[in-house]
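Query structure, 367 tokens:
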């Protein structure tokens, strides 16, 4: 996989949901590539937040807004005249979707409608990527990876709303962009981890909070298998999709973005890996315990078949599971010690991009 650095230089890119964990990493990568970055989102969803810790608002054009507000969003599109739009704004937490189903559908479905309507009305846009999730598929708890032609029918309100977001994207593409004026893709990424995620009800942030307070880590579903990957893997995949389809519309479509088979871990394996890395860096071995089963339904087994993006776009994961966790814990330790986490973030991006762009690894990577 190679990212053409010159492609993004001075190119206008608009990102929705840029104040979130993944959105902040996306903004920093685009800044490293020389893009003109505009973000449209609500205030950061957590406090603290990676967006605030990195001072990202001072490095780019950051606009506060709600994707449910079509008129405001239209004005922003008209002002910015973006060439590439990456839609990341969402209510992204499964357990939260049970508590707030109407809000979840409103943001994840009507938000997508509004963004696509702005794309339809803005002549400058040439490439659009809708970021969804691996949970869009009807989960049959089977042991092989889901392919892009599997049935879309997420179980819980979050997953189902993202399935609906996919269908909205298909409808707009068929109804309004069949002439190829805008290349449109959806990207279904697996579970992401990395420095700067402070969300509730996610396993690595839960681990971070526990070890920083010198408490036991509590595991809800230790046997659940997920396609865990470092946040830089899908971020670079989204940018590769946007670039390739901008150059040639034949690359538009839908793509799974996940790790290699060896990096599909159970939650228990992920936590054990976190504890090893934490002990290696701090000398302190965290303790963890398994909580009683309960709570709303979540899938037990989930993998992705990423053959399509590999064969069509030449994408492949760069960091294996150990490196993924090493980078994540490196950031968390720096944060715990009140060091400059923005510099850690930029160092990790440089390390990752140095391999992506030259094929020469900087640090331990899965070759």
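Result returned for the query:
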């Amino acid at each position: 996989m190679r990212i053409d650095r010159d492609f993004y230089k001075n190119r206008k890119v608009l990102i929705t949901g840029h104040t979130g964990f993944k959105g902040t990493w996306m903004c920093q990568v685009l800044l490293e590539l020389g893009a003109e970055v505009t973000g449209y989102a609500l205030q950061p969803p957590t406090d603290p937040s990676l967006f605030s810790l990195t001072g990202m608002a001072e490095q780019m054009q950051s606009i506060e807004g709600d994707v449910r507000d079509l008129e405001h969003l239209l004005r922003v599109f008209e002002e910015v005249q973006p060439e590439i739009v990456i839609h990341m704004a969402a209510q992204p937490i499964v357990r939260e979707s049970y508590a707030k189903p109407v809000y979840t559908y409103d943001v994840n479905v009507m938000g997508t409608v509004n963004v696509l309507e702005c794309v339809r009305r803005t002549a400058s846009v040439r490439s659009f990527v809708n970021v969804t999730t691996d949970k869009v598929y009807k989960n049959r708890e089977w042991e092989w990876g889901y392919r892009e032609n599997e049935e879309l029918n997420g179980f819980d309100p979050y997953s189902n709303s993202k399935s609906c977001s996919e269908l909205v994207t298909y409808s707009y593409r068929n109804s309004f962009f069949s002439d190829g004026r805008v290349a449109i893709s959806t990207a279904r990424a697996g579970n992401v981890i990395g420095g700067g995620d402070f969300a509730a009800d996610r396993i690595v942030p839960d681990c971070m909070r526990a070890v920083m307070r010198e408490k036991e880590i509590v595991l809800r579903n230790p046997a659940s298998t997920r396609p865990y990957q470092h946040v830089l893997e899908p971020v670079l995949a989204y940018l590769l999709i946007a670039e390739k389809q901008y150059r040639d519309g034949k690359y538009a479509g839908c793509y799974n973005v996940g790790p290699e088979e060896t990096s599909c871990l159970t939650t228990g394996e992920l936590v054990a890996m976190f504890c090893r890395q934490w002990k290696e860096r701090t000398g302190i071995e965290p303790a963890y315990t398994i909580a009683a089963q309960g709570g709303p339904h979540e899938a037990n087994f989930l993998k992705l078949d990423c053959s399509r993006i590999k064969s069509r776009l030449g994408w492949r994961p760069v960091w294996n599971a150990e490196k993924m966790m090493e980078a994540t814990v490196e950031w968390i330790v720096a944060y715990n010690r009140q060091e400059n986490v923005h510099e850690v973030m930029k160092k990790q991006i440089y390390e990752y991009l140095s391999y992506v762009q030259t094929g020469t690894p900087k640090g331990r990577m899965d070759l």
